[in-house]
Each structure stands twice: as structure tokens, then as C-alpha cells.
Amino acid sequence: MTEPHSASPDVVTLTQENGIALLTLNNPPVNALSTALRAGIVAALAEAAADPAIEAIVMTGAGRGFCAGADITEFGKPPREPFLPDVIAAIEAFPKPVVAAIHGPALGGGLEVALGAHARVAAPSAKMGLPEVKLGLIPGAGGTQRLPRLIGPAAAVKLIVSGEPVGGAEALKLGIVTEVAEDVVAAARALARQMIASGVAPVGLSSDAARLEAARAGRDAFEAAAAEVLKGARGAEAPAACVAAVRNSLDLDFEAGMKAERAAFLSLVAGDQSKALRHAFFAEKAAAKIDGLPADAVARPVRSVAVIGAGTMGGGIAMAFANAGYPVTLIETSAEALARGQGNIDKNYASTVARGRMSEAEKAERIARITGWLDLGAVASADLIVEAVFEDMGVKKTLMADLDRLAGPDAILATNTSYLDVNEIAAATSRPEAVVGMHFFSPANIMKLLEVVRAEKTAPDVLLAAVEVGRKLGKIPVVVGVCNGFVGNRILRAQRNDLEALLVEGASPAEVDAAWNGFGFPMGPFAMLDLAGLDISWRARKALGQTAEIADHLCEQGRFGQKTGRGFYRYEPGERKPLADSEVEDLAKAIAAREGITRRSIPAAEIVERLLYPMINEGARILEEGIAQRPGDIDVIWIFGYGFPAWRGGPMHAAGNIGLARIRDGLQARFEQSGRAEFKPAALLERLAADGGSFAG
Ligand code: 3H9
């Protein structure tokens, strides 16, 4: 028999069946812990406490999951009671057993609620984690104190600092839950029944002395794990704060640990890094929205894919599709090229297996989805054809015209180009409305970013299909307009505007790279150029009639970077460690002498400004031209495609923190000094700086 209780607000419902109450969090779409939901839980607990017929509570979430955590939209506003730590304390102090029944996401505050319960059961679909670090925060409702007591401080610090969720099976292994079951509510009820039958009063994690003692015994393992996880922090504040909070769980009593956790959480939530990461979180969601489409537009269906070209890019793209379950026809012009491409795919998967990230069976399954072919006619049966051939307009146009002849009438023709004019490529076909750009980033099976290039005539159903397919591949698709280099590479070019001048004026490639690393990028611009191959940017420059004296000179000598053992740096055979090369310095010195420039030591802050401001300026031009739909899209592209430190929120968000007037003045001074038009502040930047505005506004 199920009896609804009336007193609880709608966001929390309480029903009762045979003495066990079912407390359901019901705040669509993700049961975020809004003020109303927190108050609802407190009210439901009071109601259950007052009802002598209720012997235990099972907590569950309505809809897709248990609970996605604190309501992120409430951050930045004054916190309102009841505070989450107090709500969780009330759950834990409930005198009768409380069991959390977890399906789907139980993240952040959602998992912390479950940690307040006296036991936890998960569905295989569960996705449990403390992702606060990704928002520049530490868990702020007891996660840093209860989780170490539950699973040990080493495992806890790994989970908290990575922010990555675990599934039901892994949660069982770690000891977060005691059982995994398909019907999680039934399993939780059964467990509650056992707990009632045992007659033992429930003990919360906060007061479990035996667990605390066990956690303290894991101190050495914790310190080792903490040192390891902090290696990737690169300027982010939250990881170190997470480590400190978990260490408190060993050093302080529960109350003091909670107090310190709350203080650290409140300080981080008010800081620039968390604001930037929250911006990135919402910008990523906003990037999925496409302006200017008819309301009734739907994606053209894509069930099968053909990829043309089995080089590094084509092979990676084929793997990305195979990984997502699509059958792929991989087409090459010669048997040797095809064999080489398939060999590389095999090697790539084999290394994933060797690292324990994939089983042999999965590898075989994925490889079986990719069928090699030597005849372009094989595209006839594909819904989506992605060409990934040499980046040359003539080559791409000829191929597109052939594909137009051979493809089925409803096929989508996608070009994977990183710079070229997609309108011109589309014009080589009789169906420009079916042509779209899909700019993958290398390695295409790994990198999250996908620039979807909307050409003048791209039809809405084709654009939507490219975005939807991108999402199915696990990527973050961002729609961009046509221009040379689209959003990402166009800004990358702007970042490089002043690179050679810095060398001539006295900085070494290593100093420039170190400054950029200090800003938070994993790789500096010269190391990046050497890795990508200097010939690539050389070719792009030549196509635009541009020159770069030092880089051009290096290329003329066959110094293409790592692959030739020399570029801006030199490399020992088989090594990737960049070593200073006096020839590059001599070249820079010779140019300085010729130009009458006195070389000097250039401070890191100046180096960063001279790389960053031109990027922001180019971003402003991109917005003026409507190439990006919104400033947040540019940020998403740079965070996910180019390693921009997420805790700085991307270039356009970072601009707001620096101050647009300061950026404008810096660019204006550089423009006047160099006479180079690319430094001239963009009209949008001028206008916003004059108004005291920001790109976000
Ligand atoms: C925290 O908990 C702090 C505590 O330790 C301490 C507090 C004192 N809040 O992603 P989707 C929205 S920090 C508000 O498309 P999916 C989202 O914006 C929090 N809104 O669905 C979207 O809105 P719209 C730690 C949220 O199924 C809609 O819900 N938690 C929140 O692909 C649907 O989202 C996290 O960091 C939220 N917490 O993925 C979890 N979450 O429709 C963040 C989502 O207007 N969330 N929305 O665009 C996620 O990872 C995913 O949303 C989730 C669902 C996996 C849950």
C-alpha cells in the first residue's frame, strides 16, 4: 500500500510502503539542490520523524538521475538557508536508517547527500563523483570529510582532485556503495529492511570512530596520491585546496574539518577561478545552441559514414566514428596508403589496450567497424562522407566534385579543413546545401573540440546533423562561420603575430614558452610549432602571401620541427626534449642588428600580453563579423581545442578580468610602435572599452 504524505513541497515527495518511506528528489531536469529542494528535504525528514509508522527512509531521485549537486545558478548569490551541510547533517542524524538508492548522476552535493545516508546502493548506470574541482571549488557539504572516512584518504583524494565520476561497478569496488542492482529502489528497500531487523542504531560517517582510525592509517598512501594528483594542476587553485581539505579529515575532528571545508569553499566560490570555470560550464552548454534555424528543423539522419583519406587525420576520424558505433568505410587511393593507415589504427588501438583502457574484444569490435576500400564509388551507401585529404583547395574541389557524382542523393558531404573557404569547396558540387565543414582536431579520436563550419548555403538539417553526430562522437561541437582558419586557427595565427619580434628583441624560444606555461598553457607556442611541423604554418602563410622571417628561414633549411630533429629548438635523435639552438639565437641577433634593435631581457608578463592581447583582438573581430555566435563559443573552442587554462575561462572571459581598456591601450601602443595593422584595436573592442563593458555583456 502506498500512502502519499501531503505536507512536503512538490520538489520532494514522501510516500510510505510497509513502514519504509520513499523520499524522492524531484527538481527537473537534474534534481539540482536549489533552496526549495534543500528545504523540501528538511521538511520531509521532519515529517518522517514524526510518523511512528515509518521505520526507515529510502532516498531516490526522480527522472534521469539521483542528483546533480548544488544549483550552480545560485552560486555568486548570497547563500540561503537551509545550507546544504546542515541538510546533510540532518539526514545523517535521522534516528532510523536512511539508504540512498542511486541511479544516473549523483554528483557534487548529490553524492554528498548520499554520503549523509547510512548506506548506499547503486544502479549500474550510476555516475558518482565530486566534480567541484572542475568548477574551481572543493566539495563544500562534507565530501572532503566523509569520503575519506568511507573509502580511505588516498582513493578519496584521487576522486576529488580528478573530478571524474565512477560508475556503479567501480563505486562498489571503491566501497562507496555496498551493492549494485538494476532495481535500485527495491534493493535499497531490502537493505533498509535488514537494517531495521538488525536493531542496531544507524551510525553516520561523521561519528564512525573505526573508520576514522582506518583512514588515519592510510596517511602515507594519501600523501603519495596527493603529490601525484597535484602534478597536473598548472596554476589552478582548487586542486591544492581539495588536498588540504582531505588532509584535514585526518588531522582535525569532524566539526573542525567541516568548518575549514566550508571556509575554503566560500572563499573559492567568490574567486575569479571558480567564476571562470562556471562561465566555461555554461558556455559549453550554450555552444550547443544554433542561432537562426527554423524552429521545426531536424537533423538529417546519419547511420553510416565514409571517410576519404587514411592519413593521420582520416584515420583518427575513422576511429572516432568507430568508437561511437558507426560503420565506417575508409577510402584511400592506393593499397599501400590504405595498409599504412589501417596499420596505424591497429597500433593506436593496441596501445590503448596495452594501457588497460580497452579490452582485446572491444578493440576487435571497433576495428571490424572500419572497412578499407580503394574505390571512391564505395561512398554510394554512406549517409555522411567526411573528406580528410591534403589541405589544398584544388585537391579538395576535385574530390568534392567526384563525391557529388558518386554519393547518394541525401548524403552529407563534409570537408575536414582547418583553413579553407568552405563556400568555395561547396561550389564545386551541384548540392552546396549538403556541404558542411567538420574541422576535427588532431588526434581526432581523442580531442574534444569539433568546429562545425556553416557555409552560406549549408541547409539547416545538414548543419544539425553535423552537430548531432559530433555530440554522438563525444565531442563538443561549436558552430562557426567561414573565414580563413575559422575561429580557432584564426586566433592561433593572431597569437603568433608578435612571436618573431619577441625573439628579435631578446627573448629565447624557451623563455616565451615558459611564460606561456606560467599563464597555464600545457605547451608554449614554439614547442607547439615544432610539434605540429613548421611546414604546415609555412604553407598556410604562403597561401596568404605572408612571411615570417625566422620561421621561413628555418623551413628553407628543412628545419620543420620535431620530425626533422630541428625547428625553433633542436632535438636529440628519438628525444622530444627541446634544446636551445644557438643558430636560432644568432638569426634573431642578426635581424636585431640589421634593424637597429637593442636586445633586452623581456619580462614574462610582457610576453604573455603580447601573445594574449592580439588573440582577444582577433576574437573581437570574429564576433564583429559574426563568425562566432557568441564570445563563450570562442572560449569553449580555445579551452577544448588549444589548451587555454579553463580556470581563466577562455580568452574572451579572461579579457573581462584584465580590463578591456587596458587591452585596447596595449594594442594601440603596439600598433603605433610597429605600424602593423593586425595590432590595431578592433572596433568592437574600442567600443566596449570606451563604455566600460565586457564581451559577456
Ligand atoms: C556542488 O555540488 C557544490 C557542493 O559540494 C557544495 C554546496 C554547498 N546546477 O548537462 P545537461 C542544467 S557543485 C544548475 O544538458 P545531461 C544544465 O545547465 C555542483 N543547473 O544534461 C542544463 O540546463 P539547460 C557539482 C544544472 O543529462 C540542464 O541542467 N555538480 C546543474 O547531459 C541539463 O543538463 C556538477 O558539477 C547544476 N548542478 O548531463 C554537475 N547541472 O537545459 C554538473 C546541470 O538550461 N552537471 N544543470 O542548458 C553535469 O555534469 C550534467 O549536467 C549532468 C547531466 C551529468 C548532471
TrEMBL record:
- Which Pfam families does its entry note? 3HCDH (PF00725), 3HCDH_N (PF02737), ECH_1 (PF00378)
Q: In which pathway does it act?
A: Lipid metabolism; fatty acid beta-oxidation
Its principal location? other
Q: Can the keyword Oxidoreductase be found in this entry's annotation?
A: yes
Q: Which domain of life is it from?
A: Bacteria
Domain (3-hydroxyacyl-CoA dehydrogenase NAD binding) ranges? 304-481
List each coiled-coil range. Answer: none
* Subcellular localization(s) per the UniProt record: Peroxisome
User: Do the record's keywords include Cytoplasm?
Assistant: no
> Which Gene Ontology BP terms does the record give?
fatty acid beta-oxidation
Q: Name the reaction it catalyses.
A: a (3S)-3-hydroxyacyl-CoA + NAD(+) = a 3-oxoacyl-CoA + NADH + H(+)
Where would I find the 3-hydroxyacyl-CoA dehydrogenase C-terminal domain in this sequence?
485-571, 607-692
* GO molecular function ontology, one term from the record: isomerase activity
Entry keywords, A to Z: Fatty acid metabolism, Isomerase, Lipid degradation, Lipid metabolism, Lyase, Multifunctional enzyme, NAD, Oxidoreductase, Peroxisome
> InterPro entries per the record?
3-OHacyl-CoA_DH_NAD-bd (IPR006176), 3HC_DH_C (IPR006108), 6-PGluconate_DH-like_C_sf (IPR008927), ClpP/crotonase-like_dom_sf (IPR029045), Enoyl-CoA_hyd/isom_CS (IPR018376), Enoyl-CoA_hydra/iso (IPR001753), NAD(P)-bd_dom_sf (IPR036291)
Q: How does it assemble?
A: Monomer.
Family according to the record: Belongs to the enoyl-CoA hydratase/isomerase family. In the N-terminal section; belongs to the enoyl-CoA hydratase/isomerase family.
Q: What is this protein called?
A: 3-hydroxyacyl-CoA dehydrogenase
From which lineage does this chain's organism come?
A: Bacteria, Pseudomonadati, Pseudomonadota, Alphaproteobacteria, Hyphomicrobiales
